[in-house]
Amino acid sequence: MLRYWTAGESHGKTLLAMVDGFPAGLTLETDSIDNELARRQGGYGRGGRQRIETDKVEILTGVWKNTTLGSPITLQVVNRDYKLERLGDLERPRPGHGDLTGAVKFLGPIRAILERASARETAVRVAAGALSKQLLGAFGIQVIGFVRELGGIVVDGEEGDLEQQKQLRDQSIVYTLDPTRDDEIKELIDKTGKSGDTLGGVVEVRVEGLPFGLGTHAQWDRKLDGRIAQAVMAVQAIKGVEIGMGFEAARRPGSQVHDAIVYDESQQDGPNLGYTRPTNNAGGLEAGMTNGQPLIVRAAKKPISTLRKGLDSVNLNTKQPEAAEYERSDVCAVSAASVIVENVVAFEVAGALVEKFGNDSMDELQARWDLFHDMAKRR
Amino acid sequence: MLRYWTAGESHGKTLLAMVDGFPAGLTLETDSIDNELARRQGGYGRGGRQRIETDKVEILTGVWKNTTLGSPITLQVVNRDYKLERLGDLERPRPGHGDLTGAVKFLGPIRAILERASARETAVRVAAGALSKQLLGAFGIQVIGFVRELGGIVVDGEEGDLEQQKQLRDQSIVYTLDPTRDDEIKELIDKTGKSGDTLGGVVEVRVEGLPFGLGTHAQWDRKLDGRIAQAVMAVQAIKGVEIGMGFEAARRPGSQVHDAIVYDESQQDGPNLGYTRPTNNAGGLEAGMTNGQPLIVRAAKKPISTLRKGLDSVNLNTKQPEAAEYERSDVCAVSAASVIVENVVAFEVAGALVEKFGNDSMDELQARWDLFHDMAKRR
Amino acid sequence: MLRYWTAGESHGKTLLAMVDGFPAGLTLETDSIDNELARRQGGYGRGGRQRIETDKVEILTGVWKNTTLGSPITLQVVNRDYKLERLGDLERPRPGHGDLTGAVKFLGPIRAILERASARETAVRVAAGALSKQLLGAFGIQVIGFVRELGGIVVDGEEGDLEQQKQLRDQSIVYTLDPTRDDEIKELIDKTGKSGDTLGGVVEVRVEGLPFGLGTHAQWDRKLDGRIAQAVMAVQAIKGVEIGMGFEAARRPGSQVHDAIVYDESQQDGPNLGYTRPTNNAGGLEAGMTNGQPLIVRAAKKPISTLRKGLDSVNLNTKQPEAAEYERSDVCAVSAASVIVENVVAFEVAGALVEKFGNDSMDELQARWDLFHDMAKRR
Amino acid sequence: MLRYWTAGESHGKTLLAMVDGFPAGLTLETDSIDNELARRQGGYGRGGRQRIETDKVEILTGVWKNTTLGSPITLQVVNRDYKLERLGDLERPRPGHGDLTGAVKFLGPIRAILERASARETAVRVAAGALSKQLLGAFGIQVIGFVRELGGIVVDGEEGDLEQQKQLRDQSIVYTLDPTRDDEIKELIDKTGKSGDTLGGVVEVRVEGLPFGLGTHAQWDRKLDGRIAQAVMAVQAIKGVEIGMGFEAARRPGSQVHDAIVYDESQQDGPNLGYTRPTNNAGGLEAGMTNGQPLIVRAAKKPISTLRKGLDSVNLNTKQPEAAEYERSDVCAVSAASVIVENVVAFEVAGALVEKFGNDSMDELQARWDLFHDMAKRR
Predict the structure, then answer these.
(1) CATH of residue C357
(2) Residue B203 pLDDT more than 80?
């Protein structure tokens, strides 16, 4: 079992992720984690906070000579903008945030809620996911996340293999797969920002090189599609999750949805064992299990809830109508969301991998990977 | 903590749901559970299995004189069509099902997978949800599920209150809120069935009368939006989940998404404590917590994976291309899905209710409900 | 992950255990489960209930042609003495039972508590354990439980191997390893019964053939010693648990406690890989992991809480002193406890086995067992 | 749900405990946590490590202006003796430790195991427990831990109330309730240390002021006795746990074990609601629930596994017999164990409190406490 929690407030000392159940014997590097943290801070339309922070991960526990010990790994991202103790409470809850509901639920200050509900927390969710990608990488499993829609602008294009797609994405300032669309999108963001408004979008994650049988059909709470949906929907501002063809599958007849099975002997030594699919509308998951095809997950991010032009709210003390408070924020964080969703999906996939192949030592996991594929071929 | 598992195979003796953590002292009746079971079997376009079964729930444990004991409640739905021991294995996996991937994962027969992966299991997920609705009902919380889209036909219309909507839905043979659209839909189903094809759709669930603060923002795995997404996506054939405005929220500016906060003193004794929203695009959830507004969840169901006209597949023994096996199936089960999703959402909400208000005795829960609302009003 | 819950009341229709995460492909038989159920009903000094019931297990789900499917397995033991609906409440709580505390906690009837708190529930905990012993047996892991003390009479003697010990135990009417002591013990039970009193005792469980490394040191809630302690202490009437030398280890210097490590090449192909210990005071567990030696667990069972001669109590309605109610009971159930503790320990060990070796298919588990031992030898 | 994990290695940078589910609105102070940390380092017979470290807790997350936010609380104890990166591996596993079994399980270095298996980790388990005692204290629940036996020397004496017992304990250099026995015990420790040997002992924990009904009888994995047993047995070097009369209860007739129920109107406003017991052999737990009496838990700690005089072992590389490695250690850490066990028990009790009364805000919890006692009195 691979599991993690996070801790930390938006303006507190530090953010932490504690990862339990990570296999021993994997040599880690922090550059790729820092790279994901930097990508999370990037995109176009970000606000002042990202100029203050330059997130770097520190591995506090679980590692010796850069190699995992099998004991819990703690990842820390220190807040430069630590000022929680100097901050006061708010009176006018911001719609779209947890301000009002949290203040009621906990019978306390809004500050107590927003500091934890803030998307600042996603820095360490990204760190945990980036850690898990090093585990996936040891098995040749690759993950990419990118922006599919931004403020209504749809960006198609997924030519080339995953490596080429990464290059395209990294050339795009907003993390789409088509950098030639950047100007159009920047213009929209600029215009929206000037009007004091905000934007959302749709992000997509693909995982390639997956074996058969991560997840299970046997019990509802162990199905991998459910677990991924939980992890993604629990990301701040996400309001929708879909797998493969998703909502579009609801609109087509079955003959245009289900992916035929074809046997291609030349691929029998790959993770799909030779079973290919001309289409991948299932998005790599059937009956809660990976089916040897790429995993495809999309998520809908609502626009930033903090609007410079203010939203109608109420003063909790007077109950009189007032504009919501404004705490420094972004115009658009869809690019960041693509990084966050990519990494929480990666973590769930790594969890399912460990459930299938064990979590003692990398040597044993890799031998079991080979063993399983040998046995599966002979089935 | 309220939790449940299910057990049972499609053609096995029986299906069971074991529910742990249900409060003591609630007087149960089984009619409303049976009603949900019958609704799950209904709709238009269903196949032969539904004619064989007439699902009735039996409460095996946890109840004395129709009242819950606080001990685990086991719900049983016996399979009339019990014939598992007479059935053999399959050779040609059906695309869209877990046949191929399960056979590889477990290195065994396809039969072993399909019997458990089958949507027949949802009968007891519905039973567990229907049980939990009796708990919700004791607090005035009402739940409705209906069909929003079927095979691409969108059915709007949500006039009236939830009770009136239930009446409309129950008049519709396909469980939409507009029975006048039934003929159009039946025609599509008939036409599709004749062509050997199948249909999917979009279902919607609404929960009204919710208090503030079910779920939490504090840890990712306790956020209610995430938990609902897991429960829904883990339903057979569901490929997408959205809350409130969902994917549409990703396409609009923030000023057209976030729900202004208005204080209406006349509602201060209701569960929303007077805090109303002119819109409910958040679908009742902000920062992973209920915000006093109706919960709105939608799910995309793919078309039935078993097509009479067959899909391209492979014989696992010969590796030669053959048509997929055909096991008796429906043309369309979107109406059933609306019942299933309604009930799994209800269960998660009941779980969050119990997490907030406790799970010892109904008397204590109800006193705490009043206590919380008194304290929240004075906050 | 292997996990289970139970459901059912003492005089309800039925008792159930739902086991989730059991590997596919194991051929089951019910005789050995029934045998454990019969042993649980046996011993000397048992009361009327055991004459009414002749417990037999029924496997309701998870099996096809006697082989596990990988889906949840439900075990049922039907109560012949089903009469819950005819029973009334109690007024005078019985000390040692949950009567008083449960009635207060749940603000309800005593009947609601005692029906679930009753040791009758252990029938299905035994069934789940007996099921898991079939899994252990496939790896050559053997389990024995027996009575070590009864009412203060200590019975030593553990000559021979585990198979011979089982024969001795099965010759003893009270399940000790020395049937020649039976008369002495029967006399004590008879005398105690006549005086209206009851007896407890100490039971012991041994597990042989264990590999290295079940459990882990890495996180407190995954240590196997802790998990076993929970499972055992959660058995009705158990008030103490110890592993290996247990409390005696607290009284000796370290040089007389810790087990030297010796390498014996002739055993290198066994599960201990050649690492033997002249003593086994650790009881097979070091740092929360199995160490290749037999697991030894002992548990203290308090005397039956229901005394025919009555204990001082209070009428809950009048608050006046009265004798506690008497519900039919035994004089001594230590023999039964030896069966129960044996089986709950077996379940935890099977859970740890599955955590180390996976829970997909038996074929894969067994191949991984061999693989691990090969790799460990070459470490 | 209140839950926690720890992370950190013995000679790593830092130790951390992450506590999730702690209620909002409790004003914390760190002095009482530091006091427990200091007590854990104390006692007589401790080695060099304790002279290097002066453990202080730092609260990294979850607090604003000294008040809990309801978000996860991270407790940090920095290792002064951080030198992990300079340390090498061991070749000769130390009996009693996880060295051999961990090296086999993880197919890796002994160092990887011992750094995490070390009792150094208990510093943050103590910190988490000490935090939870502040929660318990807000309800008038008091906890004490002390040494009951050391190296076979039994120390009776529990005169006075819990406050007076704390004073006596704090006067005793080895944390017994009778400081007049200190010299005798010191002499034994000195003698043992000179001979290169080590000592264990028995520790006891009492919790007073508990309400009825923490824990439950309804499902085996939620019984409080089981949870406490797990938490205690999972403490390094603990080999036995007992509750109340424990193993002695197994040796007496029921009439000398079970605690009569007496109603004393004068106590009806206390947490026991007037239901007193002339004896408390059950140790405050019946049927897995607190019964209004003091909770009593005892644990057996084996002697320190690292002996200066060395134990017989094997060189893992050569398989030749050699003396086990010696890493700096203590002669006796029973006093420390009394602090550790006290705090892990406190945490489990706090967890059960939160399960019964909720974990949103302290204001709500306290109102619910009053509400429950009012309702229970009127039952």
Answers:
(1) 3.60.150.10
(2) yes
Number of H helices, E strands in chain A: 10, 18
Report the amino acid identity of residue B187: E
Task: Give residues with Cβ within 8 angstroms of C217, minimum separation 6.
Answer: A71, C223, C287, C288, C289, D98, D102, D113, D116, D117
The secondary element (H helix, E strand) that includes residue A335 is helix A334-357
Q: Quote the CA–CA distance of B24 and B33 in Å, as a whole number.
A: 18
Q: Is this model's pTM higher than 0.95 or not?
A: yes
> What 3-state DSSP class applies to D131?
helix
The per-residue pLDDT for C327 is 72
Percent of all residues in chain B with a pLDDT value above 70, rounded to a whole number: 99
Closest chain A residue to B260, measured at CA: A312
CA B366 to chain centroid, in Å, comes to 26
**In chain A, how long is the greatest CA-to-CA distance?**
73
D189 Cα to chain C: minimum distance (Å): 10
What residue in B sits closest to A283 (Cα-Cα)? Answer: B239
Of all residues in chain B, what percent carry a pLDDT higher than 90? 91
Cβ of A220 and B231 within 8 Å? yes
Mean pLDDT of B11-37: 97
Where b means 16+ CB within 10 Å and e means fewer, C35-51 reads ebbebbbbbbbbbebbe
Round to the nearest angstrom and report the end-to-end CA distance of chain A. 27
User: Distance from B29 to chain A by nearest Cα, in Å?
Assistant: 26
Domain count within chain B: 1
Q: Residue C70: which of B24, B112, B361 has the nearest Cβ?
A: B112
* Poorest-pLDDT segment among A179-188, C355-364, D104-113, D301-310: D301-310
Q: Quote the CA–CA distance of A6 and A17 in Å, as a whole number.
A: 4
Q: Do D360 and B360 touch (CB under 8 A)?
A: no
8 Å CB contact of A314 and B275: yes
For chain A, the average pLDDT equals 95
CA neighbor of D218 nearest in space, from A144, C116, B177, C339: C116
- For B129-154, write each residue's pLDDT tens digit: 999 999 999 999 999 999 999 999 99
Q: Where are the beta strands (DSSP E) in chain A?
A: 3-7, 14-20, 57-61, 63-64, 67-68, 73-78, 142-150, 153-154, 201-208, 212-215, 238-243, 262-263, 275-276, 285-286, 289-291, 295-301, 312-314, 321-323
On the question of pLDDT at D157 being above 90, the answer is no
Domain hosting A240: range is 3-378
Residue A285: pLDDT band by 50, 70, 90 thresholds? very high
Q: How far, in Å, CA of C110 to CA of C107, rounded?
A: 9
DSSP state of A92: S
Q: Report residue B53's pLDDT band, with 50, 70 and 90 as the boundaries.
A: confident
- Integer angstrom CA distances of residue C347 from C20, C59, D105: 12, 17, 21
A115 touches chain D (CB under 8 A): yes
Which tokens in the block code for residue C222?
A: 């995954």
DSSP state at residue C93: P
With a CB cutoff of 8 Å and minimum separation 6, the contacts of D31 are: none
